[in-house]
From TrEMBL:
Function summary: Catalyzes the first step in hexosamine metabolism, converting fructose-6P into glucosamine-6P using glutamine as a nitrogen source.
Source organism: Litorimonas cladophorae
Subunit record text: Homodimer.
Gene3D superfamilies (alphabetical): Glucose-6-phosphate isomerase like protein, domain 1 (3.40.50.10490), Glutamine Phosphoribosylpyrophosphate, subunit 1, domain 1 (3.60.20.10)
Pfam families assigned to the protein according to its UniProt record, in alphabetical order: GATase_6, SIS
Annotated protein name in UniProt: Glutamine--fructose-6-phosphate aminotransferase [isomerizing]
Gene that produces this protein: glmS2
Residue ranges of domain Glutamine amidotransferase type-2 in the record: 2-216
Keywords, in A-Z order: Aminotransferase, Cytoplasm, Glutamine amidotransferase, Repeat, Transferase
Length: 605
């Protein structure tokens, strides 16, 4: 994750841009940079490392202007050095970017004969593309609009153009971006924090929006390049309130952050080119023939999915257990086992106790956590960050998909280390992982439809979630999400298991949510769907396009998530079950962010 700030001002901007960057430093500090238009001409300064280095660079060689953009980087493509620091410049264009341009290699290739690339980044190609269009005589507005249509991925941009003294161009798809409204000035920022000292009036750009910001005016366009109006949000209260933005609940905000949080996780577990899993010396999978995953609640379900990945992709056996049971069953351990604790907080008492137990028994221990200052991160031999950022909603959402993403990438690294997959299969699965931010963004577009489905679900007193294979844990997670925030009783089951007892509970109108992407188990899951449908169940089918084609007539409601390889499908269906639970709870008027009887960090056994 990177941080972006821009000012279309009526006074000098450099100092204020640097101040904004300091508030964004939590989003990354591999390098930083600033570009301004001085008398209409582009000038930039960049530095490796923290923002103090950029300040020193500016002190040595001052620059100022009334229009400027700035960036603090958390390295994705390319080493964290000054060459790869943003803003990137090509000809007349300078750009700052947060996110991943998935098709950058293809785009670079298309310009290779006419353009020289100076960096290893995915971002530089955007500056070149806009500059090429300007060279053809297009206006800045048209050049920017044409370029956006060529990009595939999840991104937020700010861009300025030499000899175009009054404008900043910006766009969002998947990564957040807000406009700030000041007194004779306008701003641009990754979040409210970036603009906290500048304004309390924000406009959160919507998916696919782009905008032109001038000191005294701005225009916002939608994906189809139509001028649109977006609501102004006035930020009140402290920084925590500001962070909720224009979302009604932290939980919804965190659900919507997932394209970005998953990007951050990915960039931590893939190599600099984002073409391969990161092979770490600290965690050498050649040394292990078994993995033990221990966790609680939602984190446990992430571990359950990982069992499929490690076993199917890497051929490594996985034991998985809930932390509260693990050490009491006196498990048989051996030193060729790697222990992985999965925990958002890194403080859950049972998971911590399991970690200590394995350490005492001589196992190598790793903690996959969100909070890197936590006890687990400190006590484990290896701390593995998921980088989801603070999760405030008690019901875990973005931490879950980041846990899944990290575990998928680790399974891929294990497969490569063990020689269990070919190079081409490794590349194919890495590309699938890389498509996640975009596909999650597409899944979020189902929100309105899912809200309508959730409204019907909210009248039930009990519901079932069914899945097969790696969708079983998602069925369990869907049921957990629904019960913990809406208080509707819900159970998740392996679809084939229902007829061994629980099917007795199905009666006319019982809601059954069947999670069945069109994979090798699809037909079998659909047979189980029919077993409950004939007994009167009201079916909601969560599937993909091929699944919808084959089975839409069997369901009362259908939620069609983006198609993904079975390797990433559990992450995509997670988004649907999260939104379903969220909207059911909102319909019922429960306290979504702080449901009764629960705590975010469970530090008692
Ligand atoms: C459910 C939820 C909990 C946690 C569990 C473990 O939405 O958030 O089930 O997953 O309490 O917490 P951590 O991950 O902090 O160990």
């Amino acid at each position: 994750m990177c941080g972006i700030i821009g000012i279309a001002g009526r006074g000098a901007v450099t100092e204020r841009l640097v101040d904004g960057l300091k508030r964004l430093e939590y989003r990354g500090y591999d390098s930083s940079g600033i570009a301004v238009l001085t008398d209409g001409h582009l000038d930039r300064r960049r530095a490796e490392g923290k923002i103090v280095n950029l300040e020193a660079r500016i002190a040595d060689s001052p620059l100022d202007g009334q229009i400027g953009i700035a960036h603090t980087r958390w390295a994705t493509h390319g080493a964290p050095n000054e060459t790869n620091a943003h803003p990137h410049q090509a000809g007349r264009v300078a750009v700052v970017h947060n996110g991943i341009i998935e098709n950058y290699l293809e785009l670079r290739e298309s310009l290779a004969s006419s353009r020289t690339f100076k960096t290893e980044t995915d971002t530089e190609v955007v500056a070149h593309l806009v500059d090429v269009e300007l060279g053809k005589g297009l206006s800045p507005q048209d050049a920017f609009a044409v370029t956006l249509k060529k990009l595939k991925g999840a991104y937020a941009f700010g861009l300025i153009i030499d000899d175009n003294p009054d404008e900043i161009y910006c766009a969002r798809a998947g990564s957040p971006l807000a406009l700030g409204i000041g007194d004779g000035e306008h701003y641009l920022g990754s979040d409210a924090m970036a603009m906290a000292q500048l304004t309390d009036k924000l406009i959160y750009l919507e998916e696919g929006d782009w905008a032109i910001i001038r000191p005294t005016s701005f225009e916002i366009f939608d994906e189809a390049d139509k001028v649109v109006q977006r609501d102004v949000t006035v930020i009140t209260g402290g920084p925590a309130m500001a962070e909720k933005g224009n979302f009604g609940h932290f939980m919804l905000k965190e659900i919507y952050e997932q394209p970005e949080t998953v990007t951050r996780t990915l960039t931590n577990y893939l190599d600099g080119s984002l073409q391969h899993p990161l092979m770490s010396e600290e965690l050498d999978f050649k040394k292990f023939d078994r993995v033990i995953i221990i966790a609680c609640g939602t984190a446990y379900y992430a571990g359950m999915v990982a069992k499929y990945w490690f076993e199917q992709v890497a051929g490594i056996a996985v034991d998985i257990d809930v932390a509260s049971e693990f050490r009491y069953r006196r498990p048989v351990l051996n030193e060729r086992s790697l222990f992985i604790a999965v925990s958002q907080s890194g403080e859950t008492a049972d998971t911590l106790a399991a970690l200590r137990y394995c350490k005492e028994n001589g196992l190598k221990t790793a903690a996959l956590v969100n909070v890197m200052t936590s006890t687990m991160a400190r006590e484990a031999d290896i701390a593995l960050p998921i980088k989801a950022g603070p999760e405030i909603g008690v019901a875990s959402t973005k931490a879950f998909t980041s846990q899944l993403t990290a575990l998928a990438a680790l399974a891929l690294a294990a497969a490569t280390a063990q020689g269990a997959i070919s190079k081409s299969e490794e590349s194919r699965l890495t590309a699938e992982l890389l498509s996640l931010p975009r596909k999650i963004t597409e899944a979020l577009e189902l929100d309105l439809h899912i809200e309508a489905v959730a409204k019907r679900l909210s009248t039930a007193s009990s519901a079932f979630y069914l899945g097969r294979g790696s969708q079983v844990p998602i069925a369990l997670e869907g049921a957990l999400k629904l019960k913990e925030i809406s208080y509707i009783h819900a159970e998740g089951y392996a679809a084939g298991e229902l007829k061994h007892g629980p099917i007795a509970l199905i009666e006319d109108g019982t809601p059954v949510i069947v999670i069945a992407p069109h994979d090798e188990l699809f037909e079998k899951t659909i047979s189980n769907l029919q077993e409950v449908a004939t007994r009167g169940a009201r079916i909601t089918l969560i599937t993909d396009e091929a699944g919808a084609k084959a089975a839409s007539q069997m369901a009362s409601d259908i939620i069609v998530v983006p198609t993904g390889d079975p390797f990433i499908a559990p992450i995509l269906t997670s988004i649907a079950v999260q939104l379903l639970a969220y909207h059911a709870a909102v319909h019922l008027g429960t306290d979504v962010d702080q449901p009764r009887n629960l705590a975010k960090s469970v530090t008692v056994e």
